[in-house]
Design goal:
With about 300 residues, the protein is of the alpha/beta class. The chain is built from 12 helices and 10 strands.
Length: about 300
């Protein structure tokens, strides 16, 4: 799940995880930006670098959560492929891990996506550990580079575990079980970034899933703008104040709403032209609490 900052992609990612966990399934909700957005959303303590129960879903399902830390992921990687458990911890004390991820910035994203891949493909017994993994990914301005870094690393690394790991992640991210959904608002900048991001993702070969319009307002009644005299007559008939300031204020708001409605319809048309499935999530007047997340999840479940 990606989207311009401020579009609510973390809330939508959480709602999607709830929707996919309904009916007894298990999902994992992952974040990789170090913001602890999931913990803030659910009002819990900061998430550690381990998968843990986050919340139950309707029908006996479960959502687990994981905040991936690049440093911890590197230590895990060194232990898994090079058996450097104790030595890796010593490297952290020397600052070598920060040095490694600084001189090779792409390494951080390789580690983050590698952990997501491991959780996605892990099996318990004869089945996958999770029915679905939802990644609250970086914003649209960085999503192409973030997802494509493993392909670039696989191309540069000739042999060894790094090449094998990078190739595996790159294949997963471009496979039929992956979809990159883009969250937007019916505002000019988010819509433009959505269009640009989808173009970039398509060019890079990533499967784009659905455009999610977040915070959609109920459609406004169509028709002409009501004149001030008509407003005054209507207010008088309803027994409401008809002073000049009240009438002028209502008239100005009616004009603003009409302009807003026209802009939203234009932007909605631009999204329709992308020819992708589109879901509109309702504006939550009371903010994003658990009840609000359940409402968003129900809307996502009902999407075709």
């Amino acid at each position: 799940m990606t989207g311009k900052g401020g579009t609510g992609k973390t809330s939508v990612a959480a709602a999607l995880a709830l929707a996919l966990a309904a009916g007894g399934r298990r999902t994992l909700l992952v974040e990789v930006e170090g913001r602890q957005g999931i913990a803030q959303l659910f009002g819990t303590d900061p998430l550690p670098y381990e998968e843990r129960h986050l919340t139950d879903a309707p029908g006996g399902g479960e959502v687990r959560a994981l905040a991936v830390d690049a440093e911890e992921a590197l230590l895990e990687y060194l232990d898994m492929f090079y058996k450097l458990g104790a030595a890796g911890r010593a490297l952290r004390k020397l600052g070598a891990i920060d040095f490694a991820t600084t001189i090779a910035p792409g390494l951080r994203d390789v580690l983050l996506t590698g952990k997501v891949k491991e959780a996605t493909t892990r099996t318990v017994g004869q089945r996958r550990a999770y029915d679905a993994v939802v990644l609250d990914a970086p914003p649209t301005g960085r999503i192409g580079r973030f997802l494509n870094v493993t392909a670039e690393t696989a191309r540069l690394a000739k042999v060894g575990p790094i090449k094998t790991q990078s190739e595996g992640v790159a294949a997963l991210l471009r496979s039929p079980i992956t979809a990159v959904h883009v969250v937007t608002l019916l505002e000019e900048m988010p819509v433009q970034e959505t269009v640009d991001a989808i173009g970039e993702l398509t060019k890079l070969g990533f499967p784009v899933g659905r455009v999610v319009v977040n915070g959609a307002r109920p459609p406004l009644p169509a028709g002409r703008v009501v004149a001030a005299a008509e407003l005054e007559r209507g207010l008088r008939a309803a027994g409401l104040p008809t002073d000049r300031d009240t009438v002028a204020g209502l008239a100005a708001e009616a004009r603003d709403q009409a302009i807003r409605r026209e802009l939203e319809e234009t932007l909605r048309g631009e999204l329709v032209e992308l020819e992708l499935p589109m879901t509109e999530l309702p504006l939550l007047p009371d903010g994003v609490d658990r009840a609000g997340l359940d409402r968003l999840a129900a809307t996502l479940v009902g999407a075709d």
